[in-house]
Amino acid sequence: MYYTVDTGKSFEAASTDLELAVKRHGFGVLHVHNIGNTLRGKGVAFTEECNVFEVCNPVQAAKVLSSDMRLNMALPCRISVYTEKGKTKIGTISPAKMLSMLSQDAALSEVAGEVEEKIILMIDEAK
User: 23-44, pLDDT tens digit by residue?
Assistant: First the structure.
């Protein structure tokens, strides 16, 4: 269900490299949620770092939405760069497995598989 890799890079370097990899693969970064800063800004004692990248390929998203508009609730895809006990990690939830829980449409399964392949390449390049 999860695809996660460890990296020897700093949190900042991995975040930068992920953003570049996303763009190289024809996806866009719609937003980056800095969860660590958000929690600390609310007065929560949170020591880890976490950037959640919302990424999207408009062609693939249009295929999904034109088939089943309800799937907008599962978009965009998310890739996280985070720290855990001093180690930097990059990961995602499998788009193919998540979609399989929401739809049995074979064409959509193919789209989700293609997206997942690209996301894994992005993560592997950024690590």
Answer: 999 999 999 999 999 999 999 9
Look at the chain and report how many structural domains it folds into.
1
The burial of 72, by beta-carbon neighbours within 10 Å (0-12 exposed, 13-18 middle, 19 or more buried), is given as exposed
Q: Does residue 117 come out as left (phi exceeding 0), alpha (psi in the -120 to 50 range) or beta?
A: alpha
Q: Is the pLDDT of residue 63 over 90?
A: yes
Torsional sign, CA 6, 93, 25, 75: negative
Assigned token pair, 104: 């049995």
Q: What φ, ψ does residue 40 adopt, rounded to 5°? A: -65, -35
Q: Cβ distance 19 to 124 under 8 Å?
A: no
pTM exceeding 0.90: yes
Provide the residue range defining the domain that includes 83. 2-126
What CATH number corresponds to the domain at position 92? 3.30.310.70
Q: Which of 53, 61, 3 is nearest to 29 (CA)?
A: 53
**For helices 58-67 and 106-126, angle between their N-to-C axes, nearest 10 degrees:** 150
